[in-house]
Specification:
The complex is a heterotrimer. Chain B is mainly α. Chain B has 11 helices and 4 strands; from the N terminus they run ααααβββααααβααα. A two-stranded antiparallel ribbon of chain B has the order 1-4. In chain B, strands 2-3 form a two-stranded antiparallel ribbon. The longest helix of chain B is centred in the first third of the chain and has 31 residues. The N and C termini of chain B lie far apart (about 55 Å). In chain C, helix 4 packs antiparallel against helix 9. In chain C, about 55% of the residues are buried. Classes of the chains: A alpha/beta, B mainly alpha, C mainly alpha.
Chain lengths: ~400, ~290, ~375
């Protein structure tokens, strides 16, 4: 009785309200914008929060700088960041909230797994995105998607080339997370490009056990070189547990997921005797150039805890988008503040596919994009985060 | 030989932790006849208490506080969430237990954030035995587990309280008629289980110095698996099941091809055991009372 | 239950959902525009309703706890998604593809339901809960570690997304089908057999009810619809990523069923819609670590509702102050037996394995329930 009535009333109300709200949706959600809106979805909480926060902070910093310098012909920019907890299922909600909130251009997602959902949703509405750090090979496959970071396949390949050159005929170890797109993606490419003479002792872990690695360490205990395409949290745990078991002159070699490993609260990387190296396009210990400027500004405003290449990359992304828009305006294109995301996407695509170059970035010089959406910038720097320490 | 030894030690030490947790399950199940789903999360709470008190840099104090804190928490949960449901349907109790587990996890996440916290309780370093380098903490875990198990067995067999526990698990009504305070015994069971969980939390921190709000969820479920394998309600069974499960897990991780399926393997074992021998290896067959 | 007049209460949920689906469909069909956020929300609500109603069959009516509902959904999502991806080239991404995917996905989930239903015959209570949980984790783990070519492995399975303008219509049609099947099942003699098993298995067996058959039937039916929800999920997303189908998701579905009142289909529907709505809204409102408040809320809902409704000590309190009693006092209306609904929430009587010595006292039917046509959620 009461339940039935309540049922009818509640459902009817919800649906009617939503139906009314529904009919009035504008075709161009940006038509009431007073600033250009840049949207991004990233993990602001959870295990990968350091990346999302870095991206949100650094992008906000770039936006503020651009605005302080007068924006695009007087029109300012606004950054909207949403939390996806590194969970792909939240993307449809986040994306539609961003899009219907007037987002005209996007930084995509911060991590790969949610990005696989985001890239298609944004393709449906033709929203341009340039992701700072979602490095999956499949991320930029739609015409509207571009990457600022190196794709996973590329990272795996470069790592394999490094191993081929330095460890020919030797045995190396590999440690990755078998149920994670990022980790597995890099590892597969690494293995595919590896010289036949190199023997790999591989071991992996899954979501069910992300802290106790004693068995994995035991498997790798005789390896002098360990390739570790994982995020920083499991990597730091592995190193802590393995520090006395592996040879003191062993080398850890990680990809961009290692970024921030020297900033974890409670983990002191100097207590790890082994050498820790990583592939990166950003040197967080840089002492000159744009990178140095960026580091100083970032640390002064947000502290050093979340300083990493994801932020640096996001900072470049905002400047790249701004630069491309400015170039289009200079070439006579009309970009009003209420431009629809789709129209802006066409303009930006034309720029990015037409050889637009970010001359000076924190993560490289003369950054260009291929029409496939992959980035083309100077050779990957091979940054040694922590030299071998004598104990 | 080297491979065998290292896998053996790793398996035993992991199995020791599982056994420790499984003991808590098995005792509570045996006496309160309920699956305390929140048991695994008490491990996590213990870990966080250690994390908080390690700010004072005194490992022994931190461990002591963790045990005391977990015991109090265990008693509190029993009084607030489970006791009102005594006599209600088992389904209601089980759902409440799941609710408590969820509550503890989300509270921990609200208080400590969702990122992992790192804390080094004590760095035992490593030692080389027969040419195999291994973490001393694994050996310590193993040693403490054996001592605790022995003590618990003696306690249950030879003390008045222990025998009262057996009596309650056999027949609540008869135990009550014999003058045993059944509610008191159940409370004590929860207290002992929680103390063991706190120790398990400590061992996890010794193994890997990192803690997050879901630390206890998986080990909790796996320890339940261990308890079932050994025969639920049986203390030696919990030990046997824990060790077996730990060994299986370590061996499975060792074989790269099946390593990603480790969980699936462990859970398949659980299902098979339940189908083939629901009483586990050492459990007693109980006839359903009509 | 033989000659009944048309009872509006029995059909109200079909009517309401049907009308609203038609209204919204007309809007989109006639060129009206609906925001994608609304469309996504409607899809999610439909999926949740199917999941909650199907789980309610096992938890509320059979009285067994399944913690692997997300596992069945996972099977449906992967199998259905894979079928759709294979058929996309030849059949296109339209209704035929969807229907085939639905049949295959639902079918495989049904088979899994039978496989898990078999232990269900031997086990009960806590053991069964753990087996279903284990099943969910096994399924998740298996799909997570498949190769890229088969089910996408860690990268997830890319699936064709159905046109969002029409998917919600199909989704709600599926909701109606689910309701029709589940409600008719419950209101039939099969349903009464199932609730009889819940209330006292031994007595049910003694009365000649084929316990094995009905348990398996309820389990399989429930798994099938979870599989269908999974297929729907794969069509409403571009990728199926196994991480979603963990234990937490099973709990979320359980929360819907518990919040709605076990043994109440309408309650499950409202709770599913409400929780899904809150989930999406909270996700956009609560950021940072506050987002966990959502989980805290679920936990409290579970604990408070279950204790309130089940604690023996609170029984007299419930009898005096329960919502329905207060409601009756408020409108000063006598209880009219004719309007008594079979699947109404009846909390103090829900799932128990009553021991024989208690059965005697249970036989005393409260005067209120006497006019009942006999069946569903009553004792």
């Amino acid at each position: 009785m009461k339940l039935t009535k309540a049922f009818a009333v509640i459902l009817a109300l919800v649906f009617c309200l939503s139906a009314f709200a529904a009919c009035s949706g504008p075709v161009n959600y940006a038509e009431n914008n007073t600033e250009f809106v840049i949207g991004v979805s990233g993990p602001l909480t959870g295990g990968a929060a350091m990346y999302g926060i870095a991206v949100a902070n650094a992008a906000q910093m770039a936006v503020d700088e651009i605005n302080a310098a007068g924006g695009l012909n007087g029109v300012k920019f606004k950054l909207v960041a949403m939390d996806d907890k590194h969970d792909a299922t939240l993307i449809s909600t986040n994306y539609s909230a961003l899009y219907e909130g007037g987002m005209q251009v996007s930084l995509g997602t911060v991590t790969t797994a949610p990005g696989l959902e985001f890239k298609n949703l944004s393709a449906d509405d033709n929203v341009f995105f340039l992701t700072p750090s979602a490095s999956g090979d499949d991320i930029p496959t739609n015409p509207n998607g571009y990457q600022m970071c190196f794709a996973d396949g590329n990272q795996g390949k470069v790592a394999a080339e490094f191993v081929n050159a330095n460890y020919k005929g030797q045995t190396i170890g590999a440690f990755y997370k078998s149920d994670e797109a990022y980790s597995k993606g890099i590892y597969d490419q690494f293995k595919a490009n590896l010289d036949a003479s190199v023997t790999v002792v591989e071991t992996n872990f899954t979501d069910a056990n992300t802290s106790d690695f004693s068995t994995q360490i035991d498997t790798l205990k005789n390896c002098g070189f360990i390739f570790m395409p994982t995020y920083y949290t499991p990597a730091s745990l592995f190193m802590t547990q393995a520090k006395d078991i592996l040879a003191a002159d062993a080398v850890y070699y990680g990809c961009d997921g290692f970024d921030g490993i020297d900033n974890i609260d409670g983990f002191d990387i100097t207590t790890i005797p082994q050498k820790v190296t990583m592939l990166s396009h950003f040197n967080s210990k840089a002492t000159d150039g744009m990178a140095k400027e960026f580091i100083d500004k970032y640390v002064a405003r947000f502290g050093a805890d979340t300083l990493n290449q994801f932020g640096a990359s996001a900072y470049d992304c905002v400047y790249a988008i701004y630069g491309a828009m400015k170039k289009a305006v200079d070439e006579g294109k009309d970009i009003p503040v209420t431009i629809s995301a789709s129209d802006l996407c066409e303009i930006l695509k034309e720029q990015f596919n037409g050889g637009y170059t970010l001359a000076q970035g924190v993560t490289g010089e003369n950054i260009k994009w291929e029409t496939t959406g992959y980035v083309n910038k100077g050779a990957i720097q091979y940054v040694i985060k922590e030299a071998n320490q004598a104990e | 030989m080297e491979l065998f030894l290292s896998t053996l030690i790793n398996g035993l030490s992991l199995g020791g932790i599982y056994a420790m947790i499984a003991l808590g399950y098995t005792m509570v199940y045996g006496i309160a006849k309920m699956l305390n789903f929140a048991h695994g999360d008490i491990i996590m709470v213990g870990g966080y208490i250690i994390y908080v008190f390690m700010a004072l840099n005194n490992p022994l104090l931190a461990i002591f506080m963790a045990v005391v804190g977990c015991v109090l928490l265990g008693i509190l949960i029993e009084k607030v969430a489970y006791k009102p449901l005594r006599g209600a349907s088992p389904l209601a109790v089980l759902i409440t237990a799941i609710g408590v587990s969820y509550l503890l996890q989300s509270l921990a996440q609200i208080i400590f954030g969702s990122a992992n916290k790192m804390v080094t309780v004590y760095d035992f370093g490593s030692v080389t035995i027969l040419g195999v380098p291994m973490q001393v903490s694994a050996l310590v875990t193993l040693g403490v587990t054996v001592v605790v198990m022995a003590a618990l067995t003696l306690f249950i067999k030879y003390t008045r309280l222990g025998r009262a526990m057996i009596a309650v698990s056999e027949d609540k009504g008869a135990a009550q008629l014999m003058g045993i305070n059944v509610n008191g015994i159940i409370t004590i069971t929860f207290a002992i289980g929680s103390a063991l969980a706190a120790l398990a939390g400590l061992f996890y921190l010794l193994k890997a110095p990192s803690i997050s709000s879901t630390l206890g969820a998986m080990p909790g479920i796996k320890a339940f698996t261990a308890a079932v394998i050994g025969g639920i309600g049986s203390i030696p069974g919990a030990m046997l099941g824990g060790i077996l499960l730990g060994m299986v897990e370590c061996i499975s991780y060792k074989i790269t091809a099946i390593a990603p399926y480790t969980d699936a393997i462990e859970f398949s074992i659980l299902i098979i055991i339940l189908l083939v021998r629901p009483t586990g290896f050492l459990g007693k067959k109980r006839r359903e009372k009509v | 239950m033989m000659f009944k007049k048309f009872n509006l209460n029995h059909y109200i949920n079909y009517i309401v959902i049907g009308i609203l689906t038609v209204v919204l469909s007309v809007i989109t069909m006639t060129g009206g525009r609906l925001d994608s956020s609304l469309l996504f929300l409607l899809e999610k609500i439909a999926i949740s309703i199917i999941l909650a109603v199907s789980l309610s069959l096992v938890v509320g009516f059979l009285g067994e706890l399944s913690l692997g509902h997300a596992g069945f959904m996972c099977v449906g999502a992967y199998i259905g998604g894979k079928v759709a991806a294979l058929l996309e080239d030849s059949l296109g991404n339209g209704l035929p593809t969807f229907l085939i995917a639905l049949l295959v996905g639902g079918g495989v989930a049904a088979v899994c339901g039978i496989i898990i239903g078999i232990p269900a015959l031997r086990l009960r209570g806590d053991y069964l809960a753990i087996v279903t949980l284990a099943f969910g984790e096994i399924v998740k783990s298996l799909f997570q570690n498949t190769s890229d070519e088969t089910f996408g492995g860690a990268l997830g399975l890319p699936t064709p997304r159905f046109d969002k303008k029409y998917l919600f219509i199909i989704a709600f049609v599926l909701v109606l089908i689910t309701l029709a099947v589940v409600q008719n099942f419950i209101r039939s003699k099969h349903g009464r057999a199932v609730t009889a098993i819940r209330d006292n298995e031994i007595a049910a067996r003694a009365s000649g009810i084929n316990v094995t058959k009905y348990k398996l039937l309820a389990f399989t039916l429930s798994a099938t619809f979870a599989g269908i929800a999974g297929v729907l999920y794969s069509f409403s997303n571009y990728t199926v990523q196994s991480a979603k189908f963990g234990y937490n998701y099973s709990i979320e579905i359980l929360v819907m069923v518990v919040l709605g009142g076990m043994g109440s289909i309408n309650g499950s529907i409202i709770a599913a819609a409400l929780i899904t709505f809150l989930n999406t809204k909270l996700a956009t409102v609560l950021t940072g670590d506050l987002a966990v408040l959502q989980n805290l809320l679920y936990a409290l809902i579970l604990i408070v509702i279950v204790i309130y409704n089940n604690a023996p000590a609170l029984k007299s309190f419930r009898d005096r102050y329960s919502l329905s009693v207060l409601w009756k006092k408020l409108i000063r209306r006598k209880h009219d037996p004719a309007t008594h609904k079979d699947d109404e929430a009846k909390w103090d009587v829900v799932p128990t394995k009553i021991e024989m010595n208690e059965v005697l006292s249970i036989d005393v039917v409260p005067p209120e329930a006497k006019g009942n046509t006999g069946n569903g959620g009553d004792d």
